[in-house]
Amino acid sequence: MTAVLDTQVLPPVGVRAGAFGNATHLACRACGAQSPLGPFYACMECFGPLEVGYDFPRVTRAQIEAGPKSIWRYAPLLPVPADIATFRSTDPGFTRLVDAGNLAADLGLRKLHVKDDSGNPTHSFKDRVVAVALSAARELGLNVLACPSTGNLANAVAAAAARAGIRSVVLVPSNLEQQKIIASAVYDTTLIAIEGNYDDVNKLASEIAGEEEGWAFVNVNVRPYYAEGSKTLAYEIAEQLGWRLPDQLVIPVASGSQLTKIDKGFSELIKLGLVEDKPVRIFGAQATGCSPIVQAYEAGQDVVAPVRPNTIAKSLAIGNPADGPYVLDVVRRTGGRIADVDDETVVRNILRLARTEGIFGETAGGVTVGVTAKLIADGDLDPDGETVIINSGDGLKTLDAVAGHVGPKTTIPPRYEAFTDFWKGYTA
Amino acid sequence: MTAVLDTQVLPPVGVRAGAFGNATHLACRACGAQSPLGPFYACMECFGPLEVGYDFPRVTRAQIEAGPKSIWRYAPLLPVPADIATFRSTDPGFTRLVDAGNLAADLGLRKLHVKDDSGNPTHSFKDRVVAVALSAARELGLNVLACPSTGNLANAVAAAAARAGIRSVVLVPSNLEQQKIIASAVYDTTLIAIEGNYDDVNKLASEIAGEEEGWAFVNVNVRPYYAEGSKTLAYEIAEQLGWRLPDQLVIPVASGSQLTKIDKGFSELIKLGLVEDKPVRIFGAQATGCSPIVQAYEAGQDVVAPVRPNTIAKSLAIGNPADGPYVLDVVRRTGGRIADVDDETVVRNILRLARTEGIFGETAGGVTVGVTAKLIADGDLDPDGETVIINSGDGLKTLDAVAGHVGPKTTIPPRYEAFTDFWKGYTA
After folding, report:
1. Confidence at residue B4, expressed as pLDDT on a 0 to 100 scale
2. What percent of chain B has pLDDT over 70?
3. A193 is in which domain, residue-wise?
4. What is the mean pLDDT of residues A306-315?
5. Is some CB atom of chain A closer than 8 A to the CB atom of B144?
């Protein structure tokens, strides 16, 4: 409604026209007050979280299909300029939607697809959100791309900044595993080790974001733009299904942003007439060792009490999830649910996904497959409904989770007789 | 020439019509004698290596562009059935061709693209060749997919077999790093550790391939089909350039098969009228610690003397490269060259690719970028020519190579003043 707009909603001085495409303003998710498109992330009225609002033109399937094979094919639906594909980014997205017949049979589902985001440039869905945050940073004249992280986000920020030719700073706990440090430091990011845990790192990041000029902490001060990147998962799923919506989805939940943005993406496609309107039931998946939203869901509450994470699913280990209340709203409104599985089940389901579909997901993938099985057993997921699950990251980054659970079937000397002796017994 | 066909060239009994698409026979690369399409890999006349021959129909750009976003869009040009996309495979290929402006500037090239095959399902180009081998195995009624390997190939075979629902067996040296064992074993392959080095493993694989019925060792008895998968790199590069050929390519060389098949792929596109005929100079890249083809090239010889590999670029460490003579032929015929760089240069160039383009390649990528720089310095590569280099695998699989070379810029307590103290000095 234009009536509620006031002069604040003009973009900051120096930002070019069309910098944010068809986005028109930021709106508070709590009180609805509008703010201008800028480096803002908290409502000026009530300090609530901000979300990007749009005035979409007509967008056609053909127009999208003629676009680049990356998230930029959906540029008209994102807070990015129309010429976004001419800037250097990692061009993430348009990952495989795998028709997962083997896993479907194993789980007892009629039709299942795995949206495999391990195919992104740094092998997690974070490349999507970082690419949109990078565009916002560029358009706002911010010249340092930064984040607090323990893994996927750090990889994505460091790689995107390298490709864009801008400076990046990644803050990590100093006790982070050496291999995770290498996988970000290789991009020549300014990696700063902080003597403390992830909460300490996060707090310091917010302080720097508040004090320093010109910094874009992707998940702090440009978070409203960043979060919009997850909508592309919804767009791709619909397009890859032949411009149809599935019946039900199971989505891993950390902050909860991905789940709420997939719901938002589907709504936008319906409003734009790009897909037929139909109910889509949305389910969330957490690890038992960090399941604050599940606890709120089961207690019938609207607010989420923070927990101290203790799970091998590190990429989902956010004890105080920013989008918790919105996740509760989406799963309740769509007839879904949010559920959890323990770490042993996570490992078993990483292996199940690999064994059935040849997809080696990270721990979050194990959480999602495990919760899918639980939802079927509990009668919550319809076995005849067309189902999509998200694999948000890559098993190569969480090898420790499965070490000790898999290995050689035998060790033999390099002689044919040794082989045949083993093989006869093995296949008997 | 139909005249040289004899009755042997009929396919084996039980193989369905069209099992190998437009492929018509196997031809010896040494003496030219023809063999039927079957599980054959050595010429019955002279024991030379066999290659797939075709009788292509008319194939159009539009037909290809309407196909799946995987190597199967090129099905009419591969030894696979027309309905290949209906079978379960990992659907590899159609990876990014990155317009690498930053790296181009750093190297002093006018126009450079990186074909980034780390985007494949198991993050190396091996997914391409294994997918074609899997099709051949299925059509020939072979029911075990197998390989000797120390890394990428094992991942690709185990994942492809899992997805296809057939048994796989992977033979590895028993002293292989635990993380490489995990990354294959996770797919529930029958991983057999062999007490010996890679040569011992390879020898045992050949013995099993010769003795056991029903086994498809992808790089042994179905090698002619397997090798054809690399042609898809050429097809994709041409299509992604807008149906044009580049002026020059730099390609990593292990067995040499990829390089020779890219050359073959370009020739086919020209013959089919899908691209304009023009000279393409092809360059090969090896690590100094395993550079038998470079040694032959520099000595002006046509045969390649085996070496004992000693390099961190394990995925290129084949001391007795099967396609050595054919690589020499291609680089000489096209006005290219094959060159090598030492391990220290490999590490520096892994970091160069990551720093400039946000692409974390494995050691083979470092070899290729390093050799590219060397070829420019030596005046062999034209700085004004449009250049493509291949990144064949993923840095997450060779973290050890860069460990000790990158890390945090500092370690500080979680306080804002500690940060500003560091930052002032760092940016001064």
Report:
1. 43
2. 97
3. 126-226
4. 93
5. no
